[in-house]
Amino acid sequence: MDLNSASTIVLQVLTQATSQDTAVLKPAEEQLKQWETQPGFYSVLLNIFTNHTLDVNVRWLAVLYFKNGIDRYWRRVAPHALSEEEKTTLRAGLITNFNEPVNQIATQISVLIAKVARVDCPRQWPELIPTLLESVKVQDDLRQHRALLTFYHVTKTLSSKRLAADRKLFYDLASGIYSFACSLWNHHTDTFLQQVCTGNEAAATNSLERALLSLKVLRKLTVHGFVEPHWNVEVMGFLHAVFERLKQFLECSRSIKAENVCRDRLEKIIILFTKVLLDFLDQHPFSFTSLIQKSLEFAVSYVFTEAGEGIVFERFIVQCMNLIKMIVKNYAYKTSKNIEDSSPETLEAHKIKTAFFTYPTLMEICRRLVTHYFLLTEEELMMWEEDPESFAVEETGGDSWKYSLRPCTEVLFIDIFHEYNQTLTPVLLEMVHSLQGSTNMEDTNAILIKDAVYNAVGLAAYELFDSVDFDQWFKNQLLTELQVSHNRYKPIRRRVIWLIGQWISVKFKSDLRPMLYEAIRNLLQDQDLVSHIHPQSVLFFLNGCLPVDDFEFRTDQFLPYLESMFTLLFQLLQEVTQCDTKMHVLHVLSCVIERVNTQIQPYVGCLVQYLPLLWKQSEEHNMLRCAILTTLIHLVQGLGADSKNLYPFLLPVIQLSTDVSQPPHVYLLEDGLELWLVTLENSPCLTPELLTIFQNMSALLELSSEYLKNCFKIINAYIFLSSSEFLQMYAADLCRSFCELLKDITTEGQVQVLKV
């Protein structure tokens, strides 16, 4: 492709490819696809996206095509690979100027340079790193930033290579540039701190961005650039300096307002410091030994004492707690049962941990976790009032929940309590004893403290097995607290029912269960259940009472409550609106049906009538449909031969769930096949409708997937039901499918085919 004549044509087609008109867009995309393998095409793209006078959208598209071309055609062994001559020209052109004015395009250029570096650096591209090191020293702000951005992406990409030869090359690179990277980071960090002191906000923001990028480079070099980093003075010097720098940046955050642009970047660099420590601990636990003391002192100081007040923010607290947790749980720091079998490194780390976690320190951590971090916040209480279902879903594992502070504090509590249970058990029991008796309804804080302490007792249930007489506690206090109807007491009612759910599989007398069923029925009869105590809490308890592997469950104890429980759960299923809550209700209903089996028959009429409507309403919610399928499986088993009355709804559901041409089958197929099999097993005869849905089977057999075993069971079920009628319709198709299957399945699979 001649560059001069081609540039105009390619530019014109790229312009058309940015059009919103599909009549213009589609032909342009086709033409660009044809040019992908043409010699010189990527040189033309390079000229276009480095020409800052052209339209930004066109340049953006040129960069993307160039980047995709690297993935497909850069390696020598790739079909239609670029020539070595063109690659040499392109490499030189990519690092001629680091002066891209548009941030998004600059990032893409940095990424594509890193992609080339992954293949060619350092052997075919020895000048890349020296050029970058020189470019980050220039005084021009734009060039310096773009070079630093590229330096980071190149370092990140090279550090991710895992072959031994590539690791060796990265170790050599890290040793050669580490000192420079440290000085670069220190320079930009000092410059930022000075500019903040003088109030030069614009300059400080620029310096902070450079400090952030240089720290990102150092993170990759430190974590992945050395086999035994504890022998490198500069690496350990940098890691020890991290704590002092963190303190400087945290203090700096006091003077920067939350709405300030600089504040967001400042929090990012603070989090990045903690990531350096966490990554280093994860990759080099023994090299981290000399940092254990400092890390624990720093994290505990900011999270569990007044030192952090007015400075710390949620994500920083989460990171500090993760650091403590990783040190406490780290397998490398745990001594063997026979102490003499432990390595000297393990003994040293264990000694440091033991010296730090004294009784006063552990007591303070435990108390702060429970009485500070476990407390429901005003924001949470407000959300509970305004949207109780959403609050329940969030608290029991919504998408944002796993990234929030509450689960992190609970996991840290569980890990520390497990590790130091002999020390912490008396502390927690003393907190429980201090809360015995009635609670002042006007004292909101006292109610929230009790909620938090009960939460701790539930989380530590297994550790407290020998220390808590839960049966007596339940009879003497918890049961009474469930009956308190005051609106302000709803956090305790919710927590108590959750607490019982935690303990029921740990330590709870079977004879007490009828009292529990009575209490839970009363809660379900609460007309304002959704806003009053959360349906999720009640369901959690019921789920704890009814698991299949619970050997303490006695059907005869539950039967007196079956009708009312089932009716109330069905009413709840109709009342709640959140998909997650409906799924949870269905799960509990399924457990009830599974537990009592055929004895459910008198009570399922209302549910049978409602499920078709719910199925229709859940068209966009495949996970809810999975829950409906599971409920149907248990319903069919409970109804036995009477399940034929469900066929007008049941068979279309099976048809849809097992039709591989329908998109929902990705979610529904496994449960759909099980429902199909259970339906056949409980069918008194083979109906024409059951015969019709077998048309789905040939496509299922072609999948040759993990579902084959169930498919064979379904085929056998049809044969057992009515062999002559079934085989008359499908024998020829089945034989063809089996002959195809036998060619590419395992010996075990072939045996299954022959059995059929």
Describe this structure as you would to a colleague.
It is found in: Cytoplasm; Nucleus. This is Importin-11. It comes from Syrrhaptes paradoxus (Pallas's sandgrouse). Keywords: Acetylation, Cytoplasm, Nucleus, Phosphoprotein, Protein transport, Repeat, Transport. Pfam families: IBN_N, TPR_IPO11. The protein is mostly helical and 756 residues long. Among the domains are: 121 residues; 175 residues, Alpha Horseshoe (Leucine-rich Repeat Variant), CATH 1.25.10.10; 152 residues, no CATH class. Helices cover 72% and strands 0% of the residues. It is built from 36 helices and no strands. Helix 26 runs parallel beside helix 28 and helix 30 runs parallel beside helix 32. The chain starts with a helix and ends with a helix. About 1% of the residues have low confidence.
What's the structural blueprint in terms of helices and strands?
Elements: H1 3-17, H2 22-35, H3 41-49, H4 56-73, H5 84-94, H6 103-120, H7 128-135, H8 141-159, H9 164-198, H10 201-224, H11 233-254, H12 261-283, H13 292-304, H14 314-329, H15 344-356, H16 359-373, H17 378-386, H18 388-395, H19 405-419, H20 421-433, H21 444-459, H22 470-482, H23 490-503, H24 513-524, H25 529-532, H26 535-545, H27 555-575, H28 579-596, H29 605-617, H30 622-639, H31 647-657, H32 665-681, H33 688-693, H34 697-703, H35 708-741, H36 747-755
Helix pairs in contact: 1-2, 1-3, 1-4, 3-4, 4-6, 6-8, 7-8, 8-10, 9-10, 9-11, 10-12, 11-12, 12-14, 13-14, 13-15, 14-19, 16-19, 16-20, 17-18, 19-20, 21-23, 22-23, 23-26, 24-27, 26-28, 27-28, 28-30, 30-32, 31-32, 32-35, 34-35, 35-36
GO molecular function: small GTPase binding
Organism: Syrrhaptes paradoxus
Domain Importin N-terminal: 28-100
